[in-house]
Structures
1.
Amino acid sequence: MPPPVTLVTGVSGFVGSAVARALAAQGVTVRGMVRASSPHANLADFPGELVEGDLRDAAAVARAMAGARHVFHVAADYRLWAPDPEDIVRNNLATTRIVMEAALAARVERIVYTSSVATLVPRDDAPADETRAASPEQAVGAYKRSKVLAERLVETMVAERGLPAVIVLPSTPIGPRDVKPTPTGRIIVEAANGKMPAFVDSGLNLVHVDDVADGHLRAMAAGAIGERYILGGQDVTLGAMLAQIAAIVGRKPPTIRIPRAPLFPLAWANEHLARLTGGDPFLTLDSLRMAKYRMYFSSAKAGQALGYRPRPHHEALADAIAWFARAGMIR
């Protein structure tokens, strides 16, 4: 009899590839589902079976789910901007619904669904925790709204249909194998190359991608069905993050702090140019709206319930910069 299989979606991506590798390191038989058009940089040494299929194709998902005991649904349309923002919402809601329906039909024992701290409302006075659930109307931008809607769908299926899902909320992962790179990875690359002479007064929660993967495995092993767990690291201002990057690569840190308001016309122009060229804008209107808040979060619940212990964020920054340098993105 073949060993039980764990299905992981999004294995060509940043977090999904880290989850698959963490599972394989524990001796788990891994099956990864990828689109035929997915980037293959993280698949060259994939530690398991790969099956091709689009998550919007219910039949393909059902085939990939066959024989799976556990499922990690990590894949997402992770764009903070798109020519048609509603495309992000449609993609993340539809794929989550299809994967969860297939998991119910296949009677999988347990699911870890990768949500995001984007589904939380930040606080002005302290790091936000899992009690700060956002409504779709409170979410800034299409990506955040899509994750709120998808998370509420999973919670409804848990409550009404017995979906055996645990929900994890990564904060801002950084580290190796960020091949696209992610929006935060782009900031690291630009800063390391000396192309960010100024910054806005904002803040974020940085966590090593391999610690996020470890948190996924801990949620599978010990998380309570229907519960949400923040998988974060350390809170840091954007200015302090840029100074740490400068110190690692031997550059002078940026010292010019600029207000958000004058940047809105530039963000509009960036988005307009991206629509004309088909590229991705570095600065977007939604990113400026989000920069109003310090995106600080507490992982205390995951620490107490799962034994989750992320490393210091400066180690994650160093690993990210070393990987980007090996990949030729940092000169």
2.
Amino acid sequence: MSDLGPVFLTGATGFVGAAVARALLARGYRVRALTRAQSPRDNIAGLAVETVTGDLTNPESLARGVAGCRHVFHIAADYRLWVPDPETMMRINVEGTRALMSAARAAGVQRIVYCSSVAALGHTADGSPADETTPVSEAEIVGPYKRSKYRAEQAVLAMVREEGLPAVIVNPSTPVGPRDIKPTPTGRMILDAAAGRMPGYLETGLNIVHVEDVAEGHLLALERGVIGERYILGGENFSLGDLFALIARRAGTRPPRFKLSEAALWPVALAAEGAARLFGITPLVTREHLRMARTPMYFSSAKAMAALGYRPRPAEEAIAGAIAWFRAQGRLRAAA
């Protein structure tokens, strides 16, 4: 497909974006990536990727990036669960998404794959796996990151309806695997648990998926997805206790011993937030973490499997891949 011209990709230096870049190159696409001047490029080192310096707040760089492209993959986002200034996150995740969609439409791009998140979706009252049809309202969404992804997704859907934007939306659950370079909040949790630095935890639930399966799902959405539709790209649902047990088994360490209560952690969260604001650090736990943990984040990928042919591998392979990569990078001591 290299004769189709370059594909414009945002977020290529990040975790999911780098996996999408590799998947595109393996399919024969040429990749043009938007990269911020200050972003480390380790995740795309050695890849045949053309780069355009800029960011989502720079409309001129977006226009240069999409020029001559037939397809756009929008992966980039400010993904943090703690932000002292939520408006900065909103500008990047919401206004930046809207600006890129407008630039792509003006350039005559034929198809866009927008990487949203299950953070933009609803949860079921009984804790059973949610899907693309589960009702959601912004009022019930906890935290600035989740609100930003909800607003961005709603903006894309409105542009599809009102302007004919040729966008397909994918909603990854919790990607795990190699090249989690920052790491993401989930990667940090896995790293800490694998290193035995997590004595206790607050029970909740997550859907774990291999980052390379998420990348493959993006390409399937490009090739088989329906414009205006959403597709959850997930894997397996785990209680947090079971997930920590799996991480410990793969890492050769002990799982956290104490299951903690929200009430016990509330003063800890208040103190951690205060220290974060005072010293400019990332708190280990916040009040929003505790609110989010009240509802298990279980999801179903049945629609993507039926409509796109999406086939996620066992989540244990994602955990094993993440641990192996962290060890290879010197971030995690080898098991005794």
